[in-house]
Amino acid sequence: MSYAFNNDREYDIIAIGRACIDLNANEYNRPMEETMTFTKYVGGSPANITIGSSKLGLKTGFIGKIPDDQHGNFIKKYMSEAGIDTSNIVVDKEGHKVGLTFTEIKSPEECSILMYREEVADLYLHPDEVSEAYIKQAKVLLVSGTALAKSPSREAVIKAVGLARKNDVTVVFELDYRPYTWKSKEETAIYYSLIAEQSDIVIGTRDEYDMMENLENGNNQETIQNLFKHRPELIVIKHGVDGSYAYEKSGAEYRGQAYKSKVLKTFGAGDSYASAFLYALLNGKDIETALKFGSASAAIVVSKHSSSDAMPSLDEIEQLIAVRA
Amino acid sequence: MSYAFNNDREYDIIAIGRACIDLNANEYNRPMEETMTFTKYVGGSPANITIGSSKLGLKTGFIGKIPDDQHGNFIKKYMSEAGIDTSNIVVDKEGHKVGLTFTEIKSPEECSILMYREEVADLYLHPDEVSEAYIKQAKVLLVSGTALAKSPSREAVIKAVGLARKNDVTVVFELDYRPYTWKSKEETAIYYSLIAEQSDIVIGTRDEYDMMENLENGNNQETIQNLFKHRPELIVIKHGVDGSYAYEKSGAEYRGQAYKSKVLKTFGAGDSYASAFLYALLNGKDIETALKFGSASAAIVVSKHSSSDAMPSLDEIEQLIAVRA
Amino acid sequence: MSYAFNNDREYDIIAIGRACIDLNANEYNRPMEETMTFTKYVGGSPANITIGSSKLGLKTGFIGKIPDDQHGNFIKKYMSEAGIDTSNIVVDKEGHKVGLTFTEIKSPEECSILMYREEVADLYLHPDEVSEAYIKQAKVLLVSGTALAKSPSREAVIKAVGLARKNDVTVVFELDYRPYTWKSKEETAIYYSLIAEQSDIVIGTRDEYDMMENLENGNNQETIQNLFKHRPELIVIKHGVDGSYAYEKSGAEYRGQAYKSKVLKTFGAGDSYASAFLYALLNGKDIETALKFGSASAAIVVSKHSSSDAMPSLDEIEQLIAVRA
Amino acid sequence: MSYAFNNDREYDIIAIGRACIDLNANEYNRPMEETMTFTKYVGGSPANITIGSSKLGLKTGFIGKIPDDQHGNFIKKYMSEAGIDTSNIVVDKEGHKVGLTFTEIKSPEECSILMYREEVADLYLHPDEVSEAYIKQAKVLLVSGTALAKSPSREAVIKAVGLARKNDVTVVFELDYRPYTWKSKEETAIYYSLIAEQSDIVIGTRDEYDMMENLENGNNQETIQNLFKHRPELIVIKHGVDGSYAYEKSGAEYRGQAYKSKVLKTFGAGDSYASAFLYALLNGKDIETALKFGSASAAIVVSKHSSSDAMPSLDEIEQLIAVRA
């Protein structure tokens, strides 16, 4: 079955949340202490998803806040050249900086990151910088969980979701949990639940749903039973190498396989998954196909150096699916 | 028509929010600069409402946080002696103080207050101090808007409302807007709307609904039209001396008159109104009678010195209604 | 021996620091929980000292910051009526409040206080609100230790002391230690030492010198040995009922007896001591006499209800000294 | 004339302050937006000076705070391998990060930096992490002005300077002004003056002395006249390409020429100057020679890519001086 969107809209996806800088180790398979040079990429889950979607051909826009400095300029230029509408990316005037992520690739299995998230511009997006006129031009509003971590970005997202619902824009919530900025697990669970219950489609890993439910070793059936009491119509739960599951409120369930890949690093898997999954859904493909698109896109990105620049083309995805069929 | 509660519960009302200290000028009809002595009372909207309800005979409990000092001890003792269950009032261990309100009564028309609300204990109620086992013993969870002004109290209230809904506890939202602590009108509107949409009964002044809608000179019909799209079943909008209006989702509307009174000060009118209105509803009286109870209780309290100690008895309310009939 | 001041100045004493509100229990010899009414007085060590000095006939001024509210107005009016020049008391425009001190008098031996010191106006005195033109009109700049507890008041005091030294104004440092606002004992010791080393006269209790030295059970001889390496010329160390000691850099030592008194509460003893001690010094009396003045003034204030309004007259002090001689 | 140190000490220089990470653009002569890769170096003025001094053969130690992460590990390892004693570098346990400096080299004349200084570990050095036993092993305590920008690092430095004076350690104050973290010019001036007045040797650019004096276009003669009233014995004021001036309390004045160089970037000039100047003084060379050493070292570093790794050897410095003589 395919998912129905409000097609009378200019943008396929408008995303809200952070756009940051990744500094990826050029010398890898070693500890970061021994890495001497880094390459700069645009990063941040919702930015990556939007870049990936745009590269696949979707018409996209972005709501976010960037600093008034060289890193901010770079992000805006890169996203604009990727075909994303940047008219609603606000330039911070209070001296906040862009978030940074240094990546450490010790081995394909041992990747870690070193984050700079203090006083970052993206968390200073104000609710009055969120425009109803803009949101109502979208089929999908893509919300990233990390944007809920702190005020005023938190309120900006709550407002955006309210405006999306009011204007029949499908709300897609990518859980995107990062253990930074949040004060406690309980606080995280409260805001994740609040937004998940008001969303139409929820996407995340099993671990992220556990954060939302403030428990360990949660169970997919209980998760969907609770969420389907509220607004969600489609819930995607990813289980890493064991593949991903999609659940519809109607009761239908689907399982997607993970595609094996020569893994360089694990970063960027989730973002590439979401961008291709949403591309497929928005192009009227059925959910089973969308799961394949997501998995194929993730398999390609984990074999490459970046999480944004490495987003695959439609050809690459379709070819991988065909080869592995 | 009367309102149906889940009667299989031990408590009529459990309130969540602040309990503070009022310091009322003993010498009045003068500026506070010339007031030399003050009398101490328990204050804070949800505490006052609970005290008022308890005095009328309801079985009540309170969820809140008080400091570990003489003012905190006084509050707990006073509320306990007023018949309120204080088992869920947490004692702060981090040095936060109780909020203070100095009242200035220049004339019955010119009352003002001087608030101490920096780092107050009530705004440090943590979500993990809110107990599902306790909330599900109540017919009504009474939520006060000021408790939404800051984290972690904000999250404690969002959690409490979620638990109340899950356990079929009627959520009553007393808007209780105070222009302290809130960072902006937009922030206020976002959280007021969020909780109002998830409540069963909403009570406030026309000005407070304007805050919730982030506009000026709002219109009752538009307010109820928006809120009735969500969970609310009963909406009370107070217009001061012009009386109050109650709206049911079914379409029924009621108007209650304000009773004239020899006004000493205007403080405490809203709290006494809510306590008597809820008493009437919980005792199966129809909405028109409940509006009279609210107005009568308010008329009595504004003629007296305090907002808590002066809460009327059932006899006083019924007598006033009878005399003015 | 008497102490020489720069007599070619308009003001005897200009004090810098906090002016607050005391709320003294009207019903005493009981815990504060049972106190129902409070009387309002001006409080805060440097304000009390200035009021006391002014009452004795010194020409005084005050540098401080008060809120733009009824309590701020009251303080300015009271101090002005007490004869103090208030031209350098700045009105805060950022919503800070005045500090509050609720006093609890359980018995003459058990007095405690409940302080409100969060975001108080006095700690927001900015260095650019300290005027060299004003300070250089004084014989004495009186500095209170509590004003060092937080920026920007801390920097305002450091600046004021620098200006006083530059303009040959005698710097008197009243240690006035209060365990609020300070982050650690080490921080306290660092700033107390910094200012004590730059002062001409230092006055405090033995416990306060221990705070300055970050040790317990300190020794007067070691204290004066360390301080006399720096600027101080005269050091007064108070030992409660065991009297007080004055040390001169020249090597002279003096001991003053404490006068017995019918104690109502212990608050205000130090402030009244300082005001009368400085009065005597500034009037050319010898140090032994100044110690008597300090003790007599303290003995009078501890027998009365307030710490500011109760400051004695010259007659009262001289009479007490005469009677006890 | 040469400067006398307390030679009965194990370390020539112990520095206190920040050790950070520089991320220097690999592709230069372009805006940073177009720079895609960065090379990582140790940075931060006192770290650079210590590295430079150590490379020249001085025995050095460092008091500072680094994060418990890969960047922190790198710094400690690099400094240790450079011969610096790192036993008093504390590892932060509260999640603070290392400061970052991205450098932009548009042209030799247009260099700018993008700093990350929010919640950095170096500013969380606590006074109780400063050891008297360590400081008293040094001939020189080198203090960097930026460490005064915020508590508790500010108090750690004030304490260290007090301990140095108490133990006859020469205090060298490198003004090292950076317009980050400081709240106001007045605050900067207050703490810069406080430490300068307590130091033996002060080194800075004319602009930095202007910050200390809170004025514009200051005058060397007035600067030294004010400072020589206090502790300083030797004052170095640098005027960029116009050379540098050294003033002794005795009245002697010296001028050092700046050496021309093929400038790649201007960063690191001050740090390399200080390290070679202090090397010369500590080796008993006269002040004129020390000025030459400083200028030569600066000329070498500005022609290279980093500010730490590029610190010259003694041979390089002596050769440059010989060639340009």
From TrEMBL, chains A, B, C, D:
The catalytic activity, as recorded, is: 5-dehydro-2-deoxy-D-gluconate + ATP = 6-phospho-5-dehydro-2-deoxy-D-gluconate + ADP + H(+)
Name the UniProt key words of this record, in alphabetical order: ATP-binding, Kinase, Nucleotide-binding, Transferase
MF-aspect GO terms? 5-dehydro-2-deoxygluconokinase activity; ATP binding
Q: What is its EC number?
A: 2.7.1.92
The pathway it acts in is: Polyol metabolism; myo-inositol degradation into acetyl-CoA; acetyl-CoA from myo-inositol: step 5/7
For this protein, the record's InterPro entries field holds: Carboh/pur_kinase_PfkB_CS, DKG_kinase_firmi, Myo_inos_IolC, Myo_inos_IolC-like_sf, PfkB_Carbo_kinase, PfkB_dom, Ribokinase-like
Q: Which GO terms describe its biological process?
A: inositol catabolic process
Q: Which residues form the Carbohydrate kinase PfkB domain?
A: 13-312
Pfam families, sorted: PfkB
The record's section on PROSITE patterns has: PFKB_KINASES_2 (PS00584)
Functional note: Catalyzes the phosphorylation of 5-dehydro-2-deoxy-D-gluconate (2-deoxy-5-keto-D-gluconate or DKG) to 6-phospho-5-dehydro-2-deoxy-D-gluconate (DKGP).
Record's family? Belongs to the carbohydrate kinase PfkB family.
Protein name (Swiss-Prot/TrEMBL): 5-dehydro-2-deoxygluconokinase
State the species of origin.
Oceanobacillus zhaokaii
Q: What is the lineage of its organism?
A: Bacteria, Bacillati, Bacillota, Bacilli, Bacillales
Gene name, per UniProt, is: iolC
